[in-house]
């Protein structure tokens, strides 16, 4: 069957195969843990990964629907701004 990058295929493929194709492609990117040229965080605690996955389906633009999320995201800039 194969994967066409710029055309929707006529048929379907199992979700596991689609995942594996995308995952294999992404493995060709650089490894962020080996990137010593930046100060980007390249590892997170499992709890951070879990929070991201639990909130990935939220529409953060809809501030009325997600007021707590809106309030939480205002915290870090305030914390950094108050540092000397």
TrEMBL record:
Q: Which GO terms describe its cellular component?
A: cytosol
Q: Does the keyword Secreted apply?
A: no
Q: GO annotations under biological process?
A: L-glutamate catabolic process
Q: Which domain of life is it from?
A: Eukaryota
Give an example GO molecular function: glutamate decarboxylase activity
Cofactor names: pyridoxal 5'-phosphate
Q: Name one Pfam family in it.
A: Pyridoxal_deC
Q: Which family does it belong to?
A: Belongs to the group II decarboxylase family.
Protein name (Swiss-Prot/TrEMBL): glutamate decarboxylase
- This protein's species is Sesamum calycinum
């Amino acid at each position: 069957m194969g994967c066409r990058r710029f055309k929707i295929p006529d048929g379907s493929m199992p979700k596991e195969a689609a995942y594996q194709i995308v995952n294999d492609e992404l493995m060709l990117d650089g490894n962020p843990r080996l990137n010593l040229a930046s100060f980007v965080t390249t590892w997170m605690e499992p709890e951070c990964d879990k929070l991201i996955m639990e909130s990935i389906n939220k529409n953060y633009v809809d501030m009325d629907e997600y007021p707590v999320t809106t309030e939480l995201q205002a915290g870090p800039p305030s914390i950094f701004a108050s540092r000397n």
